[in-house]
Amino acid sequence: MIAAHLNALVDFCAQRDVGALSRDEVGDVDVAILFGGSILAGGDLFARAIADELAACFMIVGGRGHSTDVLRAAMRRRMGWDDVAGLTEAALFDRYLTERYDVRADLLEHESTNCGNNVRNALALLADKGVPHRRILLIQDASMQRRMDAGFRLLAPAARIVNFAAHRTPVDLIGGELGFRSPPEGMWPVDRYVSMLMGEIPRLTDDGDGYGPAGRGFIAHVTVPERIQQAYEALRRAGVGAPRAADQRWAG
Questions:
Q1: pLDDT confidence band for 247 (50 / 70 / 90)
Q2: CA–CA separation, 35 and 33 (whole Å)
């Protein structure tokens, strides 16, 4: 049941509003945004979106945060780069798109350090450049997609958001250990993935300890279904994956 409970969290957190990343499914989009907290596979997805011209403008958002070192390591392994130490998430993904796919984003945001200022900085840059953003396609890591949606619903309530999580990787029990049958490119180590998923449910729960209006006010209200709360509580009682705590280096 542990894998089933974890996959319930994946299904909830890795929000996708359409069945496929195609023009027929997505419709007309002003701007598509890839967030640097994604695994490397998010870059592959974004490259296809650019090649298929799914939006009028393409933007990558991400400075330095809790996942930057993991992304740098993935780029070293996949691309053989040995000069990534000082690069932001946006710079890493933009270079990846250029060298692997010969496509580029239109805008890069290099200063954000967490989901909250990902949203604020993205909206500020779009406004500064005069880019319409009535309809926005968001691509973020599986664990953080629903929270990113809630951040935009709070700060850009007039915008229509289309969510498409970079991946929806299920967890399985393999040889008695949690693992992945077919991990996407740059997939997190399973213990980190589990910790990130477990960390999202307290953040999304709209109570005094959460990030919603009843708590810290970082995101719009999210309704966490009872079955998701039950799955989370069952995992917590079983001692599975301590929730990822907010890293204070990137909280500002």
A1: low
A2: 6
Angstrom distance (rounded) from CA 179 to CA 170 = 9
Question: What is the pLDDT at residue 114?
Answer: 85
Whether the pLDDT of residue 226 is over 70: the answer is yes
What integer best gives the mean pLDDT of the chain?
Answer: 94
From CA 244, how far away is CA 226, in angstroms rounded? 21
Say what the pLDDT of residue 246 is.
56
Domains of the chain in sequence order = 2-10+170-240 (1.10.3620.10), 14-163 (3.40.50.620)
